[in-house]
Each structure stands twice: as C-alpha cells, then as structure tokens.
Amino acid sequence: MALLAALTLAALPTVAPGADKPALSPDTATPLVTTSRISATVEFGLPALAAAIERDIPKRLATIDERVNCVHRRVFIFRVNANCDVWGFVDRTSPVSLYGRGDRVFGAVSIYGAAEGQGANRFTARIRGDTEARATIEVEARPELRRDGSLQLNISDSFHWSEHPYLHVLGREFDLAPYVEPNIRTQLGRIRSRALAAARALDLHGKAEMAWRHAFEPIKLAEDPPAWLQLTPQSAAFAGVRADAKLLWGSLELTGSAETVIGQQPPAVTPTGLPPLGTAVAEPGTFDVILPFRINYDTLKDKISQAMAAAPAQDTSVREVQVYPSSGKLVIGVRLAQSSDTDSSAGQWTYFSASPKIDTDARAFSLGEIDLTTSSDDSQIRSAVQQLAAQLKNVANLDYRISYQNLLMAANERLTRPLKDGFRMEARLDSARLEKVQLLSEGIVIALHASGSLKILYGL
User: Fold this and answer.
1) pLDDT of 223-235, one tens digit each?
2) Percentage helix, strand, coil, to 5, in the chain?
3) Cβ partners under 8 Å of residue 342, min gap 6
4) Domain for residue 69, yes or no?
C-alpha cells in the first residue's frame, strides 16, 4: 500500500516550495483575419425580362395588302392569267415566354395568320380563296458579359409553320409565304433589338459596382464579445451568366480579407472603385471568417469553486479561488485553510498554471498539464494541493457546444439581411475549426475559423 501511494504521488505535478504569485500578464490581442471569397450574384426574373421585351412588340405583326398573279393556267383552249387582291393579317397570339437552361435562354411566341384573295377585275371577281395558318417563333440566346460589364445576348431565331399559308384558287394552291414572311422577319428584327435593349437595361456592371460598395460595410456578428466583421475586397472575377426556369443571373467572386474586430465598431472603410474583372474563378462564394466567443474568467472560477464546495469534507478546505492569465498560461489560485479554522481570512495561497486545451470534436474546453507552486510547510496543505492538482483537470472544463451552435446561428442571422438599393445578403456558415486561443484581460477568447458561403444578391 505504501508503495502504491508513493507511485500515485509521483505521478502528480512536482511541488516547488517558496514560489511567488505569477504576475497578471494577459495576451496582446492579435488581428483575426483570413482570406475570403464572396459571391456577388445579380439575379433577374426571366418573366420580367420577357415582359420588357414584349412591351414593344405589337399584337399585329403584319398586314397583307397585295395584288398578285394568282391564276396562271389553261382552261380548255384558253390560257387564263388573272390577278388577285390579297388581304389579311398576322397576329401574335401568345405572350413572349422565356426560360433558361444552363448557359442558354430560350424564348417562344405563337403567331396566327389569315388571308383572303379575290380576282382583281370584273371578269375574275368570282375567283375567291382564303387560308389560315399558325407558326411558332423560337429564339435562343447565349448571354455573355462583355469586358465593359454590359450583358450581350447572342440571339438566333427561327419560325416554322404548323400550317403553311396557301391560298386556294380554282382548285390550286397559291403560296402566300413570300408575301407574309418578309413582314414577320421585320418583326423578328424588332424582337432582337428589343431583347438587346432589355439586356442592356439590366446594367449588370452597375449592379456589380453597387455590390462591391456594400461589401465594405462593417457587420456586427455577435454581442458577447462584441464582434464586427470588416470585409476589404481586393479583386473581382466574373463567374459567368447562368439561367434556369425562372431566373437569369450573373455572378462575381469578390476576393479579399475578412477581419473580425472585437470591441467597438471599426471605422468605415472607404470603398474603392470596382477593379477590372478577372476571369479565374475557383470556388465562387466560398466564405471564411473568424468567429470568436469568450469564456469569462469568473465563469471558470465559479465552476471550480462549486466543484470544490461539493467535494467530500477534508481536513483542509478551499476558501477562495482566483483565475487570471499570465504569460500565455491560465493561472488558478486557491486559498487553502484548515477546515477547523473559523477565521474567514485564514489560509495560504497556492497557484496552479496550465495551458488551455481545446477539443474541437467534442467542443470542449479543458486544461493541459498542470504546474503548481506552494509556499506552505504544512504537510496537510501540501497533501491537499496534490489532490487539488488532480481534481482541477476534471473540474476545470467546459462544454461549449451550445455556445458554438448559437454563435453560428447568430452569425448567419446577422449576415442574412436586406441591404440598400434592392440588394440583400445571405449567409450559410456550417462548419468551423479552431484558429487560436487568446488569454485576454477580458476573458478567454476562442477564435473559430468558420467556413460556408456568403452571397450578395440583387433580384428575386
């Protein structure tokens, strides 16, 4: 038993008698900065774009009023040549519809035409005929962003008749397409012109400049400790124009520094002009930021005090606890006194020091190897100190899982908000790793390197 006791005591930290109280010496706060990327996405609803294109397209696309040679045939021994007056119209029968797929935008509009023909003089007046036909105009466009930041639509269009426009005269078919299609193609030119004007009116470059300016505004991330995010964009690259069933969007990737400032709101950063757009985009919108949360020294002190008070009665008792930083380590001071001593100020101070230990998987704070000093010659006090050193590794730990989740949720809520001029910001931070631990005068700051996405959006 004596040998077992000796081995147990030998495993505990060594007691160095006569040492002084470690000096209060907190860490100097260092910047919490990381390189980050932001996706600035400008969105436009394709139905709104279709409405803008349609606004200048008339309901009646073409009017037919032609005199044509509609009869050219032999009847018995006679060769009959007759002119016909042909009149009619071609109408747009549906709104312009647009939808996107990948890097293409597709559009369609339906048309309907009707025409009548009649002999052009009194001898041919009884020659009559009529027709009707339907067609679909189809448009395909590939949106591209030019070097000047304007949106260009490379448009190709076509139309096909579901029923070809033939005028039936004296049992023969007379093709009206050569008289109808030129008017339709004139209208297709107007559609192309209107589509290009609508694309220019989207002003992607102007929206990108506005998103760039918004990225310089400081954002409050957390209350305790007060933490502010200051983004400083340095470069921008174009991430492409894409489309789906309802949306057309263009994305920029803003790359720069994301600094988290603890304390008062940092001074506003003067926005610079939008730099020339680059073309290299690796992972659009991958966002990184340092998120700090604080463990107050009083919180740790109260936890240790409560654990010591709940321990079984001993010949010595802990009368007071101190927790403070000293040269990169956490100092825990305890005032020990004989349990039988009724003097409230009785006891001697003993100081332990240890480095903070963070378990990123368990989201837990604890102490590493504990060093201790004592100036007591009392064997009972020395024995109590040895026991305290062993106990501290078990009681001086904190589970910060809830704080971690609350921190991510609060950051996402604060980063997801409306901005000015029709813009909004959306964030989704979903993971974090340990960046650093700082023992500051106000408390223990655990800085987490959080990753996710941050978008500045304009549109729907």
Assistant:
1) 877 889 999 998 8
2) 20, 50, 25
3) none
4) yes
